[in-house]
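task queued by scheduler; priority normal; single chain, no ligands, no partner chains; default sampling; output format set to structure tokens
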Amino acid sequence: MNDVELQNLIAGGESESAEFKKSTGQRTEAAKTVCAMLNGNGGHVLFGVTNRGVVVGQQVSATTLEDLANEFRKIEPQVTPTLETVDLANGHAVIVVTTPGGDGPYTFDGRAYTRSGATTQRMAKNTYENLLSFQLHPSKRWENQPAVGAGLDDLDHEEILRVRDEAIRQRSISAGTSMDIGDILDRLELRKDGVITQAALVLFGTGRFSANYPQLLLKTGRFRGTKITGDILHNRQEQMNAFTMMREGMAFFDRILPLASHFPKGKILREDRLPVPPEALREILLNAIIHRDYAPSWGYVAIAVFDDRIEIVSSGLLPPGITVDMLSGPHLSKLRNARIAQTFHRIGAIEAWGRGTNRVIAECKKYGLGPPTFREESGFLIVTFKAPIGPGADAQKRVGAESVAESVAESVAESLLDRIQLVLNAGPLSKAEIAGGLGKKAVTGTLNRAIRKLLDDGAIDFTIPDKPNSRLQKYRLVAKNKRTVK
């Protein structure tokens, strides 16, 4: 490092990747910071610079560098940071310690550290365990361990055959794959030496495994108001495998979320929509199920619906090197549960490029909704969609339907007026016949208001003008307004 590079580094001030020490008398604290940087994205520690960025330098001898090296030997696994000196005009020098980011976890003197801005802190236990789980050789990871005491009878054979058929359609396994359950598991790498893995139980386990795997749990709740302390309108907790969890989660959204309807301008068919795009909910729920940490027995996936938001919660922190901010942009895919993810990938449910959260953000933008927020809290990842859900599912569905009618009353949808005129092209019709032509079983208030507007605008008229309330009354297009509506 030359003088210019040193000055540029100092000018940036202390940060997550830079720390200043006045002298090597602070080498123990500096070694903790080096450990923290190894557990993060790397950085530089400078000796001979005050925490205000004033360059003072210090005398540097062979003993000085040896003392530093000895301090760094307390970091495990063993690592050798780069040490270099930059000479100053006053005869002193600045020692620059450079370390890359590592896969972690690293410890100093038996304890792990992490950087939070310009501060070095003791690493939380769950963060340490998260780093450790990713550092393990794949064969030692939780999902690849044998499911002790479990056999093929503990798996849902119909689900396994469905996965086989879909994987063949996706051309991710050979069409010649046998229908033998054991052979399919071998092909999916979910059985080793005839013993099913814990990944197989996660994906296909039936109810008999639940006592030994309480973490295979889906919690769903609907809360009145905006806090979890509000009235509980729905509360369910049930153990199930990953594929069932995915289906049940999406079914919960369909049951509990309000469904609003409207007629887009220029279109005949009605459009129904949830407060949040279903594809975005599906993607985040899939991520929660696939990428969560299955090792802790207290883990779970949860869906909580409030009046103002939807939260999808899963146990486990993000992979090392991935931050919540990175989820809103391009990022690499790092897999905690490679076999579980691979099985979903084989049936076309996910891709392998780490673009899922980017697609979710794009879907929300297209929907006219703000992007979801991501946060880590107490060993869980929480994804929040802000959306107006309203008071209670059933009540909200009624409110949604009424609000559509009210909006049509205030400004009758042009598309509905067009559709009525299109129906009347066939000739004079009663209100009931018009409703039938629109695919409705009865005359609604919305239809009455639309017909009244067409009468007021002179687009249609009565067949019996002098008896507007007659049961025999019908409506017809005024000749000059007769048109074909596309």
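post-processing summary
- The longest helix spans residues 393-410.
- DSSP finds 15 helices and 20 strands in the chain.
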